[in-house]
Amino acid sequence: MSEKKHGVAIVIISFLALIFVSQFASAADEYPKILDTPWDHSPITVFIDDVNVPQHYSSTYRVQVESAILYWEDGGNSKLDFTPDFEMVNTDDADIRIMWVENIEEATGAEEGVAGFWSPYEVNGKYLRGDIVLEVGNYQGYAWRQYGDLNMFLVTKHELGHALGLAHSNDRKDIMYPTYEERDNMNPLLLSATLPYLMVFVVGSLAVVVLLLVRWWRYKRKREQLEMEVFGDSDHL
Ligand SMILES: [Zn+2]
Asked: How far is the CA of 10 from the CAs of 3, 113, 229, in angstroms?
């Protein structure tokens, strides 16, 4: 009876270990993506709205966006299965429209700490078009601070990554890792990416506890049997 239980526990543990290992193996070669091939055409047209800009817009921001576009055309973080080609256009019916607002929380109702976001119009697993909305600064403590060029460059790279189908990375060094400066409205994706690992860990831990309990129970039984054999039933204490 107890041998049987032991066997069942071993099978469960092995099964869980297999799931655990396969999860990590797939995590190593699979990068989190929203869409594998988000655009059905090339080049992807981009309109940068540097005319309707908020009060604290800096004329140096446009260059940061152009540099961010070049970053992805040059291979980006090397996680794309395709090489994107962008074309700048001057009409706002472009595939991607990039615009600035003074305060993203006020303008769009985004969460606090959000610096930019990608808002796509998606049909049948393809992007038809989308907007990248960027803010020009935020409150740090009580003082409002304008974003510098580097921050604008990083946030735009990150948002363009979403526009190219990438989700959030758990790698802190990756441009798609949602850092404080680059936080946006896509945090639920990060949670859904880490949740399976958390579940496997919890179930695995529970299985270990069950195995230990089974072992303890077997040991107790064995000991009782031994005591019965040696001392007899009546006065073994
Ligand atoms: Zn993001």
From this structure: 11, 47, 30
